[in-house]
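Sample A.
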Amino acid sequence: MYTMKPIVLAILGGAALLYLISCQDPQPNEDVTNAVKKSGAIESSVKVEHLDSLHDILVTTHVVWAHDSILKNIVYRDTLPSLGIHNTYAENQDGDTKAVSIKKDYEIYITVK
C-alpha cells in the first residue's frame, strides 16, 4: 500500500488553503450600486435589440435626476449591422441538447470619465 509523505500532504493542504483564501473578495466593489441618488444623478442604460436578420438597434437611455424627480428622459436609437448567426447547442430542463442557430450579440464596453 502506498502512503503519502507528510511533506506532500503539507504542500497539498497549503495549496488548498491558498486557493480558498484567494477566492474571497476582501473589499466589495464601491462602484456597484443598487440605488440611484435622485438628488442629482444621470442614470444611463445601453441595450441592443435585434430588428431583423440584417439590422440591430442600439438603444441608449439617459434619465437625468434632480431634486428627487426626473428632470429629463433622453433616448437615442441607432441602426447597426447585424453580426449574423451563431450555431450552438441548447439544453432544456430535461437535459436534452439540440443544435440551434441564434443571433450574435454585440459586446458593450462603457468608459466613464
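Sample B.
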Amino acid sequence: MPIKIFFYFMLLVFSTSVSAKPKILVQHQRSAKNLAEIQVTNQTVETLICYVAIDGHKIYFRLQPLQPSQWYKATDTRLNYSNFSTWCDYLYLHPKYKPRKK
C-alpha cells in the first residue's frame, strides 16, 4: 500500500511539472488591407522569450510581464491564422536571448 501511494504521488509531481508553461493569450485579426495579423499577450509576471512564425519565418522577441506584443502581419492576403505559429517560454530558461550588458 505505501508503494502505491508513493507511486501516485510521484506521478502527480512529475506530470504537473512537465506541463508547466507560461500563460499567454494569442489574438488573430485581419488588417485594413486584409492581411492576417497576430498578437501575443503575456499574462504572467515574468519576462518571456517568444517567437511568431509566419509561414516558416521566425521573429524572436522579448515579451515584458503583463504586456502585449506588437501586431505581426503576414505578407500575403492568402495567408490566414493557421499559417502562424507561436512559442513562448521563460527568459531565464534561455540565457542566450537575455539582453547583453554594455
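B remarks: DSSP finds one helix and six strands in the chain. The domain at 21-95 is CATH 2.60.40.3230 (Immunoglobulin-like).
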